[in-house]
Write a structure and sequence with these properties.
Layout lengths: L1 E5 L4 H12 L6 E6 L7 E4 L2 E7 L11 E4 L3 H12 L4 E4 L15 H4 L10 E3 L3 H14 L4 E10 L6 H15 L31 H13 L6 E8 L7 E8 L5 H10 L3 E3 L11 H4 L5 E3 L20 E3 L4 H14 L1
Parallel strand pairs: 1-2, 1-5, 2-4, 5-6, 6-7, 8-9, 11-12
Antiparallel strand pairs: 3-4, 8-10, 12-13
């Protein structure tokens, strides 16, 4: 298998190299691409050194089987034709193609079959908060179709990149030393704070991050009439996003049915024993792959007219865009 990574020098590109190695992805040839500034840098992968080449409009992708791209929406749009013209499958991490009708938006545990319908040789990778939510929703939707989803997210600093994580650490240090904390990566100081603002605000009052969850969930679940509303909040946690999800199903579902569905669901781990203080938390799962589900319950005053109305905080460890990337590629390799 001949693999290319575009944006290899970035935080996502480096994380993806780690995931490919950790998951033992079959690679015969590896090609790294980046900006003019990144060209010439070398990285070690499985004991061998690889040099980053400048991404250009040429024939460098001829013979490449899969290209993982994470260099921003602008770069993805500009170079998509160059990357795919000889049949390379481009798995893109940006928002460039997510809502294009002729580009599948794939979470393998939910709609893996869509990865084989690629008229433009492009597969889009969803937003990180959408990925973990739909993995959990799929388990319930298989029992009874979901009518409505309301979600509040508690998103870690890692979602804003490595520099944002460093900023959070430095803010805590500065405050402890009586210094004014520096704020560059977030709208406000994140240390000792929560910020109800991720990405830019749109005209309807929702942020772009919240609207991503609205649109992407409908597309991935093939549910154009699904009612989705999101509130996205940045919290002072290093890694692992959390979500509290309220959902309504067409048919009544008991807590026991929901718990069994989550237990049987792909990519899910149930941690739901509140009597013994057992529930998902980033503290314990930040370096794990699955989506962890807990605090499953019926919203009692609403349960008469709805199916299941649980709050199900889904906490993802390393079940990130990079892992989803890898799983999409595995589908293609095994086909």
């Amino acid at each position: 298998m001949k693999i290319a990574i575009v944006g290899a020098s970035g935080a996502v590109g480096q994380e993806f190299l780690r995931v490919l190695d950790e998951q033992n992805f079959p690679i015969d040839e590896l090609h790294l691409f980046g900006s003019k500034r990144s060209a010439g840098r070398t990285y070690t992968f499985r004991g061998k050194e690889y040099k980053v080449k400048e991404l250009c409009h040429n024939d460098d992708f001829k013979g490449i089987d899969i290209a993982f791209t994470s260099a921003g929406a602008g770069t993805s749009k500009e170079f998509a034709e160059t990357i795919t013209k000889y049949g390379t499958i481009m798995i893109d991490n940006s928002s460039a193609f997510r809502m294009d009708a002729d580009v599948p938006l794939v979470v393998p545990e939910v709609n893996g079959e869509d990865a084989f319908n690629t008229p433009r040789n492009i597969i889009a990778n969803p937003n990180c908060t959408t990925i973990q939510m739909v993995v959990a929703l799929k388990a319930i939707n298989d029992v009874s179709p979901i009518r409505r989803v309301h979600v509040a997210t508690y998103q870690a600093a890692s979602g804003a990149g490595a520099a944002a994580m460093d900023e959070l650490i430095q803010q805590y240090k500065d405050i402890a030393e009586g210094k004014e904390p520096k704020v560059e990566k977030f709208a406000y100081q994140l240390a000792y704070n929560v910020i109800p603002h991720i990405d830019v605000f749109t005209e309807n009052g929702y942020t772009k991050e919240e609207m991503k969850m609205f649109h992407e969930t409908k597309k991935i679940m093939h549910a154009p009439n699904l009612d989705v509303s999101a509130m996205c909040v940045r919290v002072p946690v290093m890694r692992a996003h959390s979500e509290a999800i309220w959902l309504e199903t067409e048919q009544p579902i008991s807590v026991e049915q929901a718990r069994e569905a989550f237990k049987a669901g792909k990519g899910l781990v149930v941690v739901d024993n509140p009597e013994n203080k057992e529930y998902p938390m980033p503290l314990f799962v930040a370096n794990e792959d699955p989506v962890y589900v807990g605090r499953i319950r019926i919203r009692s005053f609403f349960a008469v007219r709805t199916g299941l109305e649980p709050a199900t905080p889904c906490v993802t460890g390393m079940y990130s865009n990079q892992l989803n990337y890898h799983t999409i590629a595995v589908l293609r390799v095994q086909s």
